[in-house]
Request: fold
Amino acid sequence: MHPPLGSLVIYARDMARTAAFYSQHFGLLTTGQVVEGLIELQPVAGGAGILIHQAAKSSKLGQVGIKLSFHVEDVAAFVARSAAHGLAFGPIHQANGYQFANTKDPDGNAISISSRAFRQPPPA
Reply:
């Protein structure tokens, strides 16, 4: 049996601010309520959910041990819409048949948007 990835846990200094960030900029649904020490965010179109957990004061956040990657079909359009809502991305990079761009959440965690999932397979 191969268990599916069900959710990611993000440790945050300000749980409500971080939940609002992912809800506003990436369309995840949340009540914003803390239940059992977590704020739950659910994707609208499938994929793993996010659980926001209160970070300990001693936690070092924003390390590069993990990066969240969101699948978007049109990276440039997503970057433009995000900028209009106050979220800046770095430059758009061209890779092997797809594009990606990077930003950070309020706690300094790395985020990428990528069209890799939508790239066309090479001709046979």
About this structure: Residues 65-124 form a domain with the 2,3-Dihydroxybiphenyl 1,2-Dioxygenase; domain 1 fold (CATH 3.10.180.10).
